[in-house]
Write a structure and sequence with these properties.
The complex is a heterodimer of chains A (135) and B (227). Chain A is built from 7 helices and 4 strands. Chain A has 135 residues and is of the alpha/beta class. A 4-stranded parallel β-sheet of chain A has the order 2-1-3-4, sandwiched between helices. The longest helix of chain A has 14 residues, at 11-24. Chain A starts with a strand and ends with a helix. Chain B is mainly alpha-helical. Chain B has one domain: Serine Threonine Protein Phosphatase 5, Tetratricopeptide repeat, CATH 1.25.40.340. Chain B is built from 8 helices and no strands. Classes of the chains: A alpha/beta (135), B mainly alpha (227). The A-B interface holds A 9, 35-38, 40-46, 69-71, 74-75, 77-78 and B 33, 35, 38-39, 42, 73-83, 85-86, 136-137, 192-194.
Chain lengths: 135, 227
């Protein structure tokens, strides 16, 4: 199964997001890198790397990374440079919004989709879940 | 670049950042998320602990910069932690490469003025740091970032090699260029980082990243070893 690695400035935000994912796709491995090592808002490359290690160890088909704001992406880039060749090859980064993207990606992953299909699901999440409500 | 200079610079930087943390946070509160000074202060306190640990007593310039980079990256959070952390790591690597390959002059084949003793290593380290920040942040001068202070200061270092100045004079000129670069961020519209979400409203404020960068370059100038 494909797993998810979620990177955001707030650990509380990610705890909430993981609870939402668990409602619909409890079997999907989800690694969290929320906040800094000091317990403050922010992102941290070492925490991203740790979440990648953990998730890839239990997600044989790879991991899709979703990020929130600015520095989250920088932290992911640094973490990937420090990851092993194998870990890099099994990781994809999604441009999707972290909340909607993670939910759609988890549903797709739980259904046994390939990593490429999980990325497509995460990327497509920007407006799709909200359109019916807006129509 | 001597280990002693790097050690003294890191200590001075920690002191200056602690002293100016409130100012930096205030600048960040105006156009960002209001944590730059607090975050950087926390990071440099850890750097201070790392540098002053007995196990670091024998470390040279490259290893000190690397240790500081890892500490900053792991403790500061936000873009500034990733960017300064990466910059210090790359500066350390540049110093280490020069030591390993025995390069004492410029790395490139071009004929350039060598300048006063000690200028080339510090210039190479800052070149590597600026390149790391520009690459990771996908930013350039004029985007209202730390590069607006750093790029002009490094340019001054390059130019000073041909001007027959002392190392202390070259670094003082670089610090002045960084301060000018900081002031020049005031009218700019931010194109990177959280401030860019404000668009035109980011104009009229100093950039907090350029402010901390100018402080760090000033600390470098203030700790130049006496020849």
């Amino acid at each position: 199964m494909v797993g998810l690695v979620l990177v955001a400035h707030s650990a509380v935000l990610l705890d909430g997001l993981r609870a939402m994912i668990a409602q619909t796709a409890p079997a999907v491995p989800v690694g969290l890198a929320g906040g800094t090592g000091s317990g403050t808002l922010g992102t941290s490359a070492p925490r991203v790397l740790a979440a990648l290690h953990e998730t890839l160890a239990i997600a044989p088909s790879g991991a899709v990374v979703l990020v929130d704001l600015g520095s989250a992406m920088l932290a992911v880039e640094i973490a990937l440079e420090e990851a092993t060749e194998d870990e890099r090859a099994r990781t994809r980064i999604s441009a999707g919004p972290i909340v909607e993207g993670a939910i759609l990606a988890a549903v797709e992953a739980a259904a046994g989709a390939t990593i490429d299909d999980v990325v497509v699901a995460a990327d497509s999440a920007a407006l799709r879940p909200k359109l019916p409500g807006l129509a | 670049m001597s280990g002693e200079w790097v050690r003294t610079w890191l200590r001075m930087s920690a002191a200056v950042v602690a002293d100016q943390a409130e100012w930096l946070t205030g600048l960040d509160a105006a156009i960002g998320d209001g944590d730059h000074g607090i975050n950087l202060d926390r990071g440099f306190r850890r750097v201070l602990a790392t540098v002053d640990d007995p196990s670091a007593a024998s470390l040279g310039a490259a290893d000190l910069l690397t240790a500081a980079g890892r500490t900053i990256m792991g403790s500061v959070g936000g873009a500034s932690g990733a960017l300064y952390g990466r910059a210090l790591l790359r500066a350390g690597a540049a110093i280490s490469l020069r030591a390993e390959t025995g390069i004492s002059g410029p790395a490139g084949p071009e004929v350039v003025a060598v300048g006063p003793p000690g200028l080339l290593p510090v210039t190479a380290a800052l070149d590597a740091a600026v390149d790391a920040i520009a690459t990771l942040g996908r930013a350039q001068r004029g985007d209202k970032t730390m590069l607006d202070a750093l790029v002009p200061s490094v340019e001054v270092l390059h130019e000073s090699a041909a001007h027959g100045v002392t190392l202390a004079q070259a670094l003082a000129a670089a610090a002045a260029a960084a301060a000018d670069g900081l002031e020049a961020t005031r009218p700019l519209v931010a194109r990177r980082g959280r401030a860019s979400y404000l668009g035109e409203r980011s104009a009229g404020h100093l950039d907090p990243g350029a402010a901390s960068a100018a402080l760090l370059i000033r600390a470098l100038a203030d700790t130049v070893p006496v020849e």
